[in-house]
Amino acid sequence: MIKADAYGHSAAVIADALTNWSHDHLEAPVVDALAVVTIDEAMAIPRPPVPVIILRPLESASIVRQRDAIRLAIDRGYALSVATPQGAGDLARIAAASAVRADVQVMVDTGCHREGTSVEALPKVLAAIESYPALRLTGLSTHFVCSDEPANPFTAEQLRRFQTATSAYGRAHCGVIRHAANSAALFFFPSTHLDMVRPGISLYGIDPTGRPCCDRPLRPVLKWVAPLLMIRPIQKGESVGYNQTWIADRDTRIGLVPVGYADGYLRAFSNRARMIVRGKPAPVVGRVSMDYTTVDLGGIPEAQVGDTATVLDCDPLSPASVYALADLAGTIPYELFSRIGSRIPRVAVDPADSQENASWSIPASASKAKSA
Ligand SMILES: *Cc1c(COP(=O)(O)O)cnc(C)c1O
């Protein structure tokens, strides 16, 4: 799942890593397919050597506006999703007009009640697809709503509904791949694996429970850093930032970091979050503004202009980890990642060069106890 610019990680970088790098003597790409939500997302990544699935169903309301984009996606061999017989018909006409066959996927709604086709409407949609020679069904899927709750029986119920709705069709059409599991189902419900799985957040090293957990060997792959642009002394009693929300209680030094809420560093982090400078936590003081954040360097006298401030740490136990920041803002890692702004360049780093900062790691036995 590389939707939403690979959860903010850069779809181009991630698609490249998943399909072009060698992994442990494996000759083939580590993934069998890539999935995005929109046609624009699919067209923005360099053409990968594996199938691309576009998940958002084509709807008549947008088909006129998207006609050219749809044609280009079909030409690239990307699989498009439909949810209604009308959507299938529209897609078939566009494919037929360019004399090509379009791959089609259908998501079955088993309880999410979002974009999928209802179990009742599914036979009509499948019949419509079969009636058009310009369409070829390549996948049937469903999406779980609470697979991150291992004790919740609704995941098994959704799987049962999906199996009932699709197993006869799947048997009769062997080219049709059935897929259901997101990251949480991948770990907690092995019976949901079917023909293919669709991990998203875990691909980026984040535990689907939203807490770091030693039971699963996941490690965040993204680290967001920025330079300390300026350092200025501040006297006791002086304020920092908009509306004077922070007043120095002692003489100190304030570091200026060129990252603000326009970059996805939330205003809710004002006076609450910490960045990491020289391996130590530097508290965010004053309001996070659109383009800047200020940190108190009072406890880090060795900090200098040009030092690296770690805005979002890849150590899962760091006070600047995505887990810690999501907690502070009352949200989840998915949202923080997908908000990282377009001003922030994403660069791939060789894993060999990033074997650093285990500074926050506590012994496995201790963190295991914590997560239990
Ligand atoms: C985003 C998404 C996923 C991946 O979910 P994660 O929880 O990130 O693993 C899987 N399937 C669909 C349909 C999605 O939209």
Write the layout of secondary structure elements.
Blueprint: H1 3-7, H2 11-20, E1 34-36, H3 39-44, E2 52-58, H4 60-75, E3 79-82, H5 85-97, E4 102-109, E5 117-118, H6 122-131, E6 135-142, H7 154-172, E7 177-179, H8 183-188, E8 224-227, E9 230-234, E10 239-240, E11 246-247, E12 252-257, E13 274-277, E14 280-283, E15 293-296, E16 308-312, H9 322-329, H10 333-339, H11 364-371
Parallel strand pairs: 1-2, 2-3, 3-4, 4-5, 4-6, 6-7
Antiparallel strand pairs: 8-16, 9-12, 10-11, 12-15, 13-14, 13-16
Helix pairs in contact: 4-5, 5-6, 9-10
The structure holds pyridoxal-5'-phosphate.
The site of pyridoxal-5'-phosphate has 13 residues, from helix 8.
Question: In words, what does this structure look like?
Answer:
- 29% of the residues lie in helices and 19% in strands.
- By secondary structure, the chain is α/β, with parallel strands linked by helices.
- Strands 1, 2, 3, 4, 5, 6 and 7 form a seven-stranded parallel sheet that branches. Strands 8-16-13-14 form a four-stranded antiparallel sheet, with no helix packed on it.
- Strand 13 (274-277) and strand 14 form a beta hairpin.
- The protein is elongated.
- Residues 1, 3, 55, 143, 182-184, 198-202, 208 line the site of pyridoxal-5'-phosphate.
